[in-house]
Write a structure and sequence with these properties.
Elements: E1 32-33, H1 47-55, H2 67-77, E2 84-87, H3 89-101, E3 107-112, H4 117-125, E4 128-133, H5 142-147, E5 153-159, H6 171-180, E6 186-190, H7 205-209, E7 215-220, E8 233-236, H8 239-248, H9 256-266, H10 269-293, E9 304-308, H11 313-323, E10 325-326, E11 328-330, E12 334-338, H12 342-358
Parallel strand pairs: 1-10, 3-4, 3-5, 5-6, 6-7
Antiparallel strand pairs: 2-8, 7-8, 9-12, 11-12
Helix pairs in contact: 1-9, 2-9, 3-4, 3-8, 10-12, 11-12
């Protein structure tokens, strides 16, 4: 038997593996998962019923065109259906964008640290990552990102609010940046946490896309809408980009259960707002509590908080887990902590206070 193995693409060599948030520790009297930016609430009213009804037909393929969902999104956001594309979560749509825009020899720019899938999907495409460090205030350095554009640049990711720091870019700064980017470079405004934004000066990317053909906006049903397990996201972009996304989509990738649940979720806007308002209130309470303990906490517009801990990151994560909550550590940098149930947030604050006293 030959010792030779199938030849795989060299672009996959050394590719980082996406690390999901750890589940809550088993065996603990109290255990909460604050590591994946999930919504702690159950599905919105009417959503579970729609999903169960759709499940009765999962011996059939889903509607590949996502007709009902596209119509609901077009109505909700006031955009033409041909400016929409769906995928398996916003990260799935992001990977489709790279398939459509970038390959070997091309460059993709993004802030760092930012969403950890960016380097993974960029390397899969064969393109080169250009990572631009965050500012000392944990924000995008938009001037440096604009300076990094070359004739090889094909796509720029702008995570707003940024994951994992929670910092968000204000309107004037973002518009100045967009004005500097060449019109043949696609700028992707990744707005997975848009529903949690409460600062009126943080722009809605869909407003910006309307007269900028090189702007694409990513949204997801995984966070505020609480459909993380169903994997449905979408993009809003002008027709050439949206059409390319539909070409690169995995056929039948978004299940009918996910489509129907997403449509039902869009019909429960009032309940959504009430839940998001409750999480935002908890976000404020947690942030204020951490600052009162002496922590430096960046202003966050997402459903999580960020603590830069450097070499103490792993120790903090271990201490939090021992206290009954799992957080998301980024080795040597810091921890991201999702805003969860009030009880979980209380446990986290107590763990943070105890750890702080030991510093």
């Amino acid at each position: 038997m030959s010792d030779e193995t199938p030849r795989l693409r060299a672009a996959l060599d050394g590719i980082p593996t996406y690390k999901p948030g750890r589940p809550a520790a088993t065996g603990a009297a109290l255990a909460y998962k604050l590591s994946s930016n999930e919504n702690p609430y159950p599905p919105l009213p009417g959503v579970l019923e729609s999903a169960v009804a759709a499940a009765e037909s999962f011996n059939r393929y889903p509607d590949m065109a996502c007709t009902g969902l596209m119509a609901a999104l077009a109505d909700r956001f006031g955009v033409p259906p041909e400016h929409l594309a769906t995928g398996t979560g916003s990260v799935g749509v992001a990977q489709q964008l790279l398939q459509a825009t970038a390959g070997p020899g091309d460059e993709v720019i993004y802030a760092w640290r930012s969403f950890e899938a960016y380097p993974i999907i960029t390397q899969i495409s064969g393109a080169d990552s250009v990572r631009v460090p965050l500012t000392a205030g944990e924000e995008h350095d938009l001037d440096a990102m604009a300076d990094a554009v070359t004739d090889r640049t094909r796509l720029i990711f702008v995570c707003n609010p940024n994951n994992p720091t929670g910092a968000a870019i204000r309107r004037d700064a973002l518009e100045r940046f967009l004005d500097r980017v060449p019109r043949d470079v696609l700028v992707v405004l990744d707005e997975a946490y848009r529903e949690f934004v409460r600062d009126a000066d943080i722009p809605d990317g869909i407003e910006l896309y309307r007269d900028r053909p090189n702007v694409c906006v990513l949204r997801t049903f995984s966070k505020a809408y609480g459909l993380a397990g169903l994997r449905v996201g979408f993009a809003v972009a002008h027709e050439p980009v949206a059409a390319a996304l539909r070409k690169t989509a995995v056929p039948f990738g978004v299940s009918q259960v996910a489509q129907d649940a997403a449509v039902a979720s869009l019909g429960s806007e009032q309940a959504l707002l009430e839940r998001v308002d409750a999480l935002v209130a908890e976000r404020t309470r947690v942030s204020d509590g951490l600052r009162a303990q002496g922590w430096t906490v960046p202003d966050t517009q997402a459903n999580f908080v960020w603590l830069r801990l450097g070499e103490r990151t792993a120790d903090f994560a271990a201490a939090a887990e021992q206290a009954g909550v799992t957080v998301r550590p980024f080795a040597g940098e810091g921890v991201r902590v999702t805003i969860g149930e009030t009880e979980a947030n209380d446990l986290f604050l107590r763990a943070a206070e105890s750890f702080r006293k030991e510093l």
